[in-house]
């Protein structure tokens, strides 16, 4: 009896403390304090983008010594690893967004955040030009601002390899509106298939969900789609659910080439069990309005009729990045993206740092890399500020005729502050969700690799991502969505 009482008391204390912590953190987050004002004597750091790289940068930045301006076409950070879950309503889109102002209002010095798309960077004049490309515009919808330092992290856009019909007929999965569009279209296909008198051939086509690209984006989306089908659609559309088929088309011999062989085999077996067809060694050549045209390993042309097509074949450089590369064509000659040195400085330009998916480095274009680069650059900026301060002090000491020992010590401090270690990437492992409450993980342990898969890995995947969400608010929202989906199921309204 006593044990039960002690246990109940411990749980109660835990709940009270936990709730208190959540309330206190939420209050603190929602009531930012005073900030230092804009100081025209300080250098201006312009940050392009508010994705993984820029957000990690802003989160760790001490901007006492800088005026910071953030420019991005969207006014929020998107937690991309959980985006596939939004396509079927496992998570609500708002749960994985974080307004950038929630972050910048907590910085030490006032920071400007402009919702705008940068279309030109002039590395000579050190300026950027940007426009408001949203539906509602004021009298001014385009301008130019100068920078002393530019943090360039605009990410990449969807790769289509110029394949005919992709842009017109396929959905992508990069932004939150892509996921919402997919969610609506899934239900649209199902309702169209359910329409009175629909011929069988059209039902079959409309219920064919095709995914092109067997990288992690394509695989995770296929896994989520399968869960929706199995856990929800079967109950509400019993006559149609059996007819739904999911096909994943991949040009290489296997999906997920970045994972270890046993995890690739595990994923392929799990997909087979879940009746997700995988067509490997099959290269899509053209996308028609209702049919994907591909070439298989025997060089035969194969056609895949579809109701919904999701295209996930990786990244390519954005137009603004390509323009910047052509301005610096004597040093920027990689087709993959911007070339940077080991300190993330853009080669051939002064005062520009570039990171994340817009760069061409030896690292994979992942959130993990971009966020580590963002944190690194925040440290670099602190060191640069310290160096500038010491240089000023040295100059003043010289003018005041300070003793040689004092001058030597200041000069040595400048040298120390100038000595910035190069960026070092620490790989924390690769994780992917593959559907049916299973995830796969390649984790570096000691000097080897641990390949894990299954239900336990799925809980690890969930806890890893919930802990990586940037705010407590998002953690609460995501955890609540997971609980809602488990208890109440997913919504099938075509909202
Ligand atoms: P992004 O995060 O893409 O940010 C780019 C920013 O630039 C955005 O804010 C954008 O609005 C802004 N921008 C665009 N154009 C302009 C412009 N002209 N002017 C100004 N701003 C501009 N990686 C992992 O490590 N683990 C995962 O589980 C994972 N899952 C993913 C799932 C999906 C569905 C996708 C699409 C990607 C996933 N990734 C994952 C990859 C990861 O999201 C990217 O590598 C990461 O977002 C790169 O960060 P970034 O800062 O370079 O670019
Ligand atoms: P990707 O580049 O990883 O994979 C694209 C796949 O499409 C490739 O396997 C390629 O062979 C295939 N492909 C290309 N053209 C094709 C064609 N015409 N026909 C058929 N197949 C074709 O792209 P993805 O999945 O969009 O990922 C982009 C980046 O984001 C990667 O670096 C990835 O690691 C990262 N990411 C990581 C995740 C995770 O760690 N869980 C989740 C999602 C993305």
UniProtKB/TrEMBL annotation:
Keyword Oxidoreductase listed: yes
Residue stretches making up the External alternative NADH-ubiquinone oxidoreductase-like C-terminal domain: 427-491
Keywords attached to this entry: FAD, Flavoprotein, NAD, Oxidoreductase, Transit peptide
Keyword check for NAD: yes
Reaction(s) catalysed (UniProt annotation): a quinone + NADH + H(+) = a quinol + NAD(+); a ubiquinone + NADH + H(+) = a ubiquinol + NAD(+)
Gene Ontology molecular function terms on file: NADH dehydrogenase (quinone) (non-electrogenic) activity
Highest rank taxon of the organism: Eukaryota
Enzyme Commission number, as recorded: 1.6.5.9
Coiled coil segments of this chain: none
Residue intervals of the FAD/NAD(P)-binding domain: 44-374
Region forming the signal peptide: none
One Gene Ontology term, aspect cellular component: mitochondrion
Similarity comment: family membership: Belongs to the NADH dehydrogenase family.
Name of this chain's protein: NADH:ubiquinone reductase (non-electrogenic)
Protein's organism: Rhodotorula taiwanensis
